Amino acid sequence: MSEAPSWMRPDPNDPIPAVDLRTDIAHSARVYDYLLGGKDNFPADREAGEKLLADWPGARTAARAARACMHRITRRLAEVHGVRQFLDIGTGIPTAPNLHEIAQEVDPACRVVYVDNDPIVLAHARALLTSTPEGRTAYLDGDLRRPDTILAQPALHTTLDLTRPVALTLINVLHFYPDEEAYPLVERLMQALPSGSFLALTVGTADSAPQEVAYAARRYRDAGIENYQRTRAEVERFFTGLELDEPGVALANRWHPDDGPALDDHEVIAYAGIGRKP
Predict the structure, then answer these.
(1) Residue 94 resides in a domain
(2) What CATH number is associated with residue 109?
(3) pLDDT digits (tens, 9 = 90+) for 3-12
(4) Total domains in the fold of the chain
(5) Can you say whether the dihedral through the CA atoms of 187, 172, 196, 108 is positive or negative?
(6) Dihedral of CA 132/168/25/61: which sign?
(7) Is 206 buried (19+), middle (13-18) or exposed (0-12) by CB count in 10 A?
């Protein structure tokens, strides 16, 4: 592949682009950032987060468990399955280590395309473009609801070779889309990827903590953020036609846990899974 064009390698001294962050209303990515202890959030986001924590003090633990699961998913894809190309849609606000940093620890030549349509992610996109010299990263301003637009962007094809396997990662994003949108969107994106590609996702569920998630879902909706929790069977449906990696779809705390302190199921509100396209 050719050298990355200059617009994909921003000067760290460039000013942050002027964007309308709509700081007067809560945003799911910024509420998540607040729960993770980040600083890229505003009063409306913190208010929504505090109301959620008042109902369910374990929300921070659940958010951190989901983020840690993303790290394990990325490492397994790179180490065990040999994936060297990643398409991460619904990236969210950069939180170190980012996906490309984990993948490039395994192989510095890994390539990652990040996609998000949140202005605050665009404002911090340079944190997603700190690739190793051997690898490459790119950021696309794109909407999951418009997969064909994402797939047509030149930067995607400059960064990734779509004739070779790609891991499509959808981390903590699909629970903001109703069934009639979510399943077709995932199917369309996987259709565009070659044999040997992977689907990797985490999806919110109420199976493990029904009362707590009901509180959380209500608080998100009160803040204007729709959300749709799914059962294990409904998450498995995303992998129709794919070969599920072991242990299949499992709660995030049970999906290849690390050696740290074990979390109880009721502290985790997301399922995780990886599937390979035959």
Answers:
(1) yes
(2) 3.40.50.150
(3) 344 334 444 4
(4) 1
(5) positive
(6) negative
(7) middle
